[in-house]
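@channel sequence for tomorrow's demo:
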Amino acid sequence: MAYEPEPHTLDADAVRTWSSLALAALGRARTDIDAINVYPVADADTGTNLYLTAESADRALTEALARTAPGVTDGTGPAASPASLPEAVRAYAHGALIGARGNSGTILAQLLRGVADVLGADPAGRAPGPLLARALTRAAEEAYQAVAHPVEGTMLTVAGAAARAAEAAPGTAADVARAAYEGARAALAETPEQLAALGKAGVVDAGGCGLVAVLGALWQALSGQEPEPDPVRGPAVPLERIPEPCAQEEGGPGYEVIYLLEAPEEAVGRLRAALDALGDSLVVVGGDGLWNVHVHVDDPGAAVEAGVEAGRPYRIRITHFGDERRRASAPRAQRAVVAVVQGEGLAALCGEAGATTVPARPGEPPAVAELVDAVRRAHAREVVLLPGGAELRAAAAAAAEQARADGVRVAVIPTRSAVQGLAALAVHDPDASFDEDVVTMTAAAGATRYGELAVAERQSFTSAGICQAGDVLGLIDGDVAVIGAGLPETAEAVLERMLGSGGELVTLVLGPEVPETLAARLEAYVQHAHLAVDTVTYRGGRHSAPLLIGVE
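structure tokens (generated this afternoon):
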């Protein structure tokens, strides 16, 4: 007999509902929260950062629940069992951790981790009221511990008040959630009296607004009642736009640095001390070997180097506050191109062509939030998005959907290789109509066949036969077509096959360790065998493939 959730019980289904409601609430409140973002930096992005963090958490939860849906099987064993509460909350917290954005998003991720630390240990799989209260208390405690120098009148204050109200509330999980929600609303209304920057601007704390929305969604998920008026617009939350004199922070660090870090816990303790000496707004969240690091500094290079000393930092994001303020106040461009590129040389090349670039590394494709951020940085009414790989189509489509919700017209051209992106950029015409430009760029990308050389890491079956570790693989349009022993010979074989069906221009993109002599050899090969075909060569730079080939 199928299990039916009991009323007012927090289980995996309720977590799914909570996530959906929280994401929707933050989406509605996003612009208003951005507008009251005063502390610690008036950069008008708190609502956006909270939304993108919640979006990452929601996506991870959705994927986890899909893997454990009843009847789902991979063909090698019995169908999966329904997700438990521990599985759901851990997936929800992990998604927030890897996608956390900004100071507020990082704190939200730690709050969700605190909840998961308690509910994830619940053997029954369903959380009664007292257990939920303990989870909210743990969440507030861990959030305070994650911030190097906690300040009252902020999101932390609101979390602490919610936890105290939850601990004092008897009854079901829904009763506890409502008490936490109401306690958070009351604490939020008092934040202007606790923090001078808020009082001067006449606003409540922006991060606290987001937390109220998340707690309101939790109460709604457990109570089943119709939603109350948007919690960030209600009478207890007096939203006002920041007066112009209060919209700038004086004397603070110039850069925000965020990265994910794989490191042991003892190394993270040393990292906290090093970063604390470099700047402020330090928040380090996570555990079990994976951390999200956020800090404001004047020397972003030193902040990244500190991460390298502690472990392996990746998904590094550095933002200059002055650039963000100027961008926010500057008029939007009519049209921009956003391109995902693998290789620093390719990124520079696309940047020179006017594109806003999103870096990608082998095995580390950018997340949806990174694509959304790039569209925001492009600061245009119309955006053409070049994903650069078939594996990024879904992420590009999701990013485009979010950007359209912000009023940006976005078209995704399904480029599958960087050379297709270069072909599209070459015909980009910002003076043409949007539809004409997109059609022309799409046709140029589609008319470009693409090849790539890679080195096999292990023995494997391919469409061209069995390869051994160390073999050079020649791929054409994504499929292995040639297996060779050396880079030059394999490259020539790939070129011959690609030019067999015609072509007017060959584009070669060389990896960082490929000698110039290979380019000269391939250019001579093309000139000798195909007199009417021109060749152009670029350096892909660090993180690029050994060789990319485009034929158009």
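heads up for whoever presents: The first strand starts at residue 255 and ends at 262.
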